[in-house]
Design brief:
- By secondary structure, the chain is α+β, with helices and mostly antiparallel strands.
- Among the domains are: 122 residues, Rossmann fold (3-Layer(aba) Sandwich), CATH 3.40.50; 131 residues, Topoisomerase I, domain 3 (Distorted Sandwich); 119 residues, Topoisomerase I, domain 4 (Orthogonal Bundle).
- The chain is built from 23 helices and 28 strands.
- The chain has a 6-stranded antiparallel beta barrel. It has a 4-stranded antiparallel β-sheet with strand order 21-22-23-24, covered by helices on one side. The protein has a 4-stranded antiparallel β-sheet with strand order 25-26-27-28, covered by helices on one side.
- A hairpin with a 2-residue loop joins strand 22 and strand 23.
- The longest helix has 28 residues.
- About 2% of the residues have low confidence.
Length: 755
Amino acid sequence: MESPAKAKTLGAYLGRDYKVIASYGHIRDLPSKNDAVDIGNHYKVSWALNDRGKKHIQELSGFLKSADSLFLATDPDREGEAISWHILDVLTGKKLLMNKNVKRVVFHEITKSAVKHAFDTPKDLDQDLVGAYLARRILDYLVGFSLSPILWRKMPGARSAGRVQSVALRLIVERELEIQKFEAEEYWSIHADFKCKDGPFTANLVAIDGRKLEKLDIKNEAEAKRLKELLEPLQYHVEKIEKKSVKRNPYAPFTTSTMQQEAVRKLGFSAKKTMTTAQKLYEGISIDGAMHGLITYMRTDSTTLSTDAISGARSFIKQELGDRYLPSSPRIYKTKAKNAQEAHEAIRPTSFDRTPESIKKYVSGDELRLYELIWKRALASQMESAVINQVSADIIPTTDDNARFRATGSSVEFDGFLSVYNDTADDDQKKLPNLVDGEVLDLTQITCDQHFTQPPARFNEASLVKKLEDLGIGRPSTYASIINILQERRYVTLQKRTFIPESIGFLVVSFLRNFFSKYVQYEFTANLEEELDDISNGKLLWENVIDNFWQEFNNHIDKAQTLTITEVINIVEKDINDYVFKGLDGDRTCPICNKGKVNLKLGRFGAFLGCTNYPECKFTQKLGSGADGQVQKEIEQPREIMKDPNNGNDPVSLKRGPYGYYFEWAKTKEKSGKKPKRLGVPKFITDPTELTPEDVITLDQLPKTIGKHPRSGESIQLVLGRFGPFLKIGKESFKLEKDISFLRITPEHALEIVG
């Protein structure tokens, strides 16, 4: 299996005849060198075992000597199949599997019954899934190792380019360009406050002079005031009341994408944090001394539930909520995601009887919040529809029907699934008083409100994941890593929970759009994903898919090699002129010497603006970060984060210098007479404002002992090295994720990692 936590849970189910070993993910990968894939020899790959892989293969080899069988029980998806294939390939090469029974077992939830069924019905490795993995991995390698060097030479400051990440970056950049080009339009709305026998209410003007009012029809204050003066003297009555009951059906249970979207929106989790937390719930939690997997596999496109799950949900609804909340027949959902691939169940609890309240004391706060979201969504998906009463009333002047106001309201007649999964953002109810046809109303006042059209919203993690899914780009297992890579490369930053492209992000997208346009087209990327799915389903051969891609792509690489920096600059300047020269006069006259022109320049450390009159004129200007001024100012200004209790409550501020963000202790200079104490924020933490005071204290204490191993007694240390955070016990090191979560690791989680 991949993880020690999952291995521990499985070991408890299988008993003493089995030894369960964790591979800790992939045991080998493509080495970072140009000849790792032999293009002329059927794309033969020179795989390299990683240090942890060598250790686990050695351990596995020892156990195999006295074993009858080897069961490969990695995750039930493409990556899981690939990990099993790698292990099998290495062991076969070492001739360790002679006279051994080797089988693949697959289960989508870690429960005793699911595990028993999997071992009772083992199968062989799925070579089509392995082929899809090889195609994806080799394609990503060929794109990265061919395109990235071109970027480095032609676009200094760029990090690298990826097959899917570049398309996601294009989405973010093009949305930002839309925002920057957007010109707001003024418009006005008119509302009337009326009073009837049953109470007051508000109605909106929807028609005037015999025509329906569109959103932008009232363009200025003068027109709004003219209409107000026209409407105020009139008497009004209710012309027509419409009442109807509308059924609102429950949402489908979670897929990976919808889980990430809701966790971002409702819990404030990042996509990466959502997947890490879900992984723990899937792998198993100790409850009263026994290990239990709490949810089904969390990487899935499917919205279907198994017969057993539906039966469990319906039984719980009947017993705990009552017959009125139980539909007459089970609800069946069809997957809507484009190119849906993983034929799993939706994400659901392994037992509906295991309520969030019942597991509260066994899990962390974040685990409980995500589990509750999953449990409620899955249960609600099998509940009766809600019934909403909707009312609309048209109000017109008594003398004529030259104007028309409309009041709307709604109320819940039967809450149905909303009693469990109530989306307050969508379900705010507004009741109308009881109105009667023909009833004369008292006009209290008419108000005019000014509005401006709004630019399209920046992508946040939820909306970006949804857009990628809608376009058929990426897969459930890749959304979190796509987002993470864009931030690690500093192509985008996450501010106020929305993505803002940095200047290098704009330039990279412009370069790719102009010189590799086909490969950042949304439809092309989605079609390639579909071909990878066809490999998984045995419809295409993986080598043929790579051949078709590589021949044309390699021609683009050869052409790009001949480009000069000047050619690149000229194209990019024209392509994103409004962004590059934002704030300068139309003719781009140098603001210092008034003689030269301001042009885009590419230097060793990236792009900047400079004067053509150099070296006589030394004018240079950094390209904008892509953030609006307000956001950038707020992030960069010194901000007090805390008072350090370990240093006499010394105020600690977040600041930004030429090398990034850092924390500064205010009084240390006064005490020592030297420079104030400063602590750098790791580069991979893209939004330091998310760090809590506890995080800062932990960061200041690194390397820090966070526990002892119960068997060896050795200290487990949390360390931050040049390549990221890791745990250290004795001479062994265990890498941690490059995000804020490493500062919040518990002794229990650390023990799971070090085994």
